[in-house]
Amino acid sequence: VEAVRQAVVLVGGRGTRLGAIAADTPKPLLPIAPGVAFLDVLLGELARHGFTDIILLAGHLGDQVSARYHGRAVREASVRVVREPAPLGTGGALWNARAMLDPWFLLANGDSLFDVNLRALSMDASPEFVGRLALRAVADTSRYGSVTLDGAKISAFREKAAGASSGLVNAGIYLLNRSILDFIAAPCSIETDVFPGLADAGLLQGRRFDGYFLDIGLPDTLRRAAVEIPQRSRRPAAFLDRDGVLNRDFGHVHDAGKLVWMPGAKEAVRRLNDDGYYVLVVTNQAGIGKGLYDAEAMNALHRHMQDDLAAAGAHVDAFYHCPFHPEATIEVFRHPDHPDRKPNAGMILRALRDWPVEREGSFLVGDQPTDLQAARSAGLPGFLFDGVDLADTVTAARRSVGRSPASIEEMAS
Ligand SMILES: [Mg+2]
Questions:
Q1: Are strands 73-74 and 77-83 parallel, antiparallel or unpaired?
Q2: What mean pLDDT do residues 53-60 have?
């Protein structure tokens, strides 16, 4: 199965519980900072996880959604807006966009954020199920209605019931097969009209995640979003060299046929994703300056790497490359000592400007002394990879900078 690249977001709901603040603005477009809508945050999350085709299902006040987002690019992703002709419920809204749907796609609520590894949800799509729901554990399910998980399968949905009890609830993010359309008739709600029947038929899976969750449906939670989302988005980064760290260094690797992953590399990236690190690759690519291949060939290789990572439940947030070299044959790339070319720190410094990186806990892993020099120049600890198992090296690096998996769990609790 090909990597899931499509994400569909439900943005048509009415923010009735928000009262006057949502009277003239679709709920997902409400600002959480000057000029920043809640939906901007959500789209940034989808884009950095490698979803490149984003479809917004708009309804109520949909002209504002179209005006702001249709045709827009978010990192590598492009955004399209589909407007339902009349309120159709979440099922009807999806049906209305049926001609655009990929065989597998992610469906997410536009008014909530669940900070989890979205690639872990969208890996291993299989014909054995029609949908897989991201679930979260809560102390009191009575507000939501609970979900019963039996291994990977969801065996039952229970309606909202009086009395507090702990359990798993639907977090509003799903991996779906297009065949879900066979179960949708007329205007309906996917959550209440479609999922229970699919669960009864054994066609629904669930996966528990323990990430931060916020729903902006209430004035109080909307205020919290403005404070908590900027805090939560500041997190440490793992800077990784590419050749000799992620893939075997055969010298100027530039096509997928020559891609051999280093031992433990995909596992290392997945664990970093699970624990909320930004994973940023910084790679010297003098081969471009020397005319051995071009940036498009390199980008194609990186897309291929992202597909392999997606199959392993992982993703790289961004690749930074430096085509400059003192002996470049292509003149525009000839430079005696370009600030981006490692051992200089230019790529790392640029990434630190582009992403809300918390320096505390951040580090670099490389296989050459020049990588470590670049890290030092950027003021970050650097670790040498011996080629044995990248997951082990990254675990040791995290322990060394004081952000072991255990200490992160402590922070979260
Ligand atoms: Mg290297």
A1: antiparallel
A2: 96
